[in-house]
Amino acid sequence: MRANKVSKYFTYAIGEIVLVVIGILIALQINNWNENRKNKIKERNIISEIHQEFINNKKQLAFIKSMHQYHLDQVNKVVNLFPIDVTKTNLDSLSSFMLESFADWTFEPTQGRIKWLVNSTNFDLIQNEELRDAFLLWEPTFEYYHEDEQHAIEFNRQSLYPYMRKHFSRGINFEDDRMDLSVLESIEFEQMMHTRRARLRAILENHTNELQRLEAIIEIIIDLTKRND
């Protein structure tokens, strides 16, 4: 009888332990499920914010690209007139082309959210591997593209603008008697215009296709964040 009681006690004790363990496992599972649910909500919110960020970036880049292209078109019109003969060239047209050739434009994307994400532990919340790769590629691709724009700006500010201020009146008015129109026939002027064209081509048409890569990454991020929104 005593042995039977001990056996029943151990059976009861084991049963209690099993119930406690099952309870702990269930509690852990509920806690994990709750954490996963919170993480999913957080991931969805982050992705939604980045989606809107890159919708805006896409619009801005399209505008900046159009301005670079417009200025390149105008520079090409100037270059196509070389060598210039001031007695034969339509100076009004040349003045108009030149005025529309010089301006500094840079793509300044909103990227606070994506930078924060990539440099924080929240990056682990992103489940889509392709999206994670696109996030990681964004900054270096943007920096490579931005270098081309900065080179164009540096040339303008260090060389082109000082040259223009020295030789041409404000508004490039060729009817101003103080201007020496022979500068238009100089090799130096041609070199300035050719370099300006080269800098714009480096932004739009360079052999490494940085602009095209940037546009592609923006499209990927927009597409994949939309899918997960």
* Helix run count: 6
The major sheet is characterized as: none
Number of strands: 0
Number of structural units classed as domains:
1
Report how far the terminal alpha carbons are from each other.
68 Å
How are the secondary structure elements laid out?
Elements: H1 2-79, H2 91-99, H3 112-118, H4 129-167, H5 187-205, H6 210-228
Structure explained in plain terms:
- The chain is mainly α.
- It has one domain.
- The chain contains 6 helices and no strands.
Short description:
The chain contains six helices and no strands. The protein is mostly helical. The chain has one domain.
Tag the structure with descriptive keywords:
229 residues, mainly alpha, rod-shaped
